[in-house]
Amino acid sequence: MSNVILVYPHTGLDLQGVSVWMPLSLLQVASTLCGDYDVVIVDQRVDDDWRGTLQDLIIADTLCVGISSMTGTQIRGGLAAARVVRENNPEVPIVWGGNHPTLVPRTTAQHPLVDIVVMGEGEVTFRQLVETLEKNNHWHGIPNICFETNGEIFSNGTGTDPKYFIDQTLVPPLPYHLVDVEQYVGGRLVFGKGVRSLPYMSSQGCPHPCTFCCQPVLSGRRWRKQPAEMVLERTMRLKEEYNLDAIEFHDEEFFVDRRRGALIAEMIAGDYQWYVQTRMDDLLALDLDALERGGLRVVQPGLETGSARILEMIQKGETIEQFRLANSKLASTSIRCTYNFMMGYPTETERDLEDTVDFALELIEANPNASVAGFYVYVPYPGSELFAQAVKDGFVPPDTLVGWSAFHRQHLNTPWVDGRTETVEMLMYSSKFIDSRRFRYAFKDNLWMTGAANLMEIMYRRRWRQHSFRKTPEIYALSWLARRQFSW
Q: Could you give the number of structural domains in the chain?
């Protein structure tokens, strides 16, 4: 059997048991190869000697090395892995895939450490490429790939044509045996200390047109689902095999089909706890008591802003009043909710930002189950509709793969943030401590940690209410630590 190596690079903020989730994207690609090929996964986040591991894996029968990457720090980790491959066996094709290579294929393909770019969902295209390489056939005509030859870029499609999307009912079970599952069992910040959980994807894509998001391009606003029966069977198998207490559904939007979501809850029937990413208008329309009886314990909606003007600009399709009503409805249950907010949008004013701060405080003070996951910074990722507005407002997109490696959700070097960096950094880091609920769940037995979190909550809430956004010494320290992580 021939060897296929798949690499998952560092993301820049990899905390074991907190932010290091199972590499689902690689497992999905591997699912169509296992049984016919010897597939190995190298995860830089959990393997301190990943360079040595990668060197040992590259053998004469190695067909290719696949590297998955999102825009930002993962590119840097991917290039480090590609360099190891090139130095050990220059003949092994280096194949890049994932969100960033799909959205910016030509710039990616121009880099000397990139031989082939696989665009779109890799289950079908990457399998076809591996089969062609095994037979020593000419691969240049394979759909949904991009490559450079003699200084000229060739692209066969875009990877976003729906006819190449894999039917979710035909997705093979994920080959969990390719990773050490125990390295990814987590749940501390989602469910609380001592809860064993793993992620699961029950659908692909998202139908909503949010202008800050690249999903409308990647998925063509098509949402594809696994049947409820398949979801139950596979998650129950996960639960039993790995002794789990909970499942984290990492779907882009779990309740697109509300009837399906309600049916899954009914079928789970509380056999395990579960978490979803969803929208507030979905929660308004659903029977939360029934979902809670089914085991739903945590929801994480992306509210994005407390400014009605910005909400309309990003085409969220929801209103501030819907957010307020859904928050009130959640408060009548025991379902915990963690809210995502974003700031630093093009055209955002000081008043818009203050409205978001005030609204976040309003929600967590009105709902004892609510907390703020974070205030993230809008980054003009390629592929999003708002990207065009960003360019119009002075953003200059990088023209190299290395240039794109600098962009992540803590990146502040955009024209519309310039001059407000101190305010944005203060809100970005203090948002993690604006309420201590998540820390109380995560560190139930650590009185020092929970006490410190409570004190920081009191301090930052007071500063937020006063709109006092000057950076404090601890914020300077946190920003320095984050920069070190993201400059890996």
A: 1
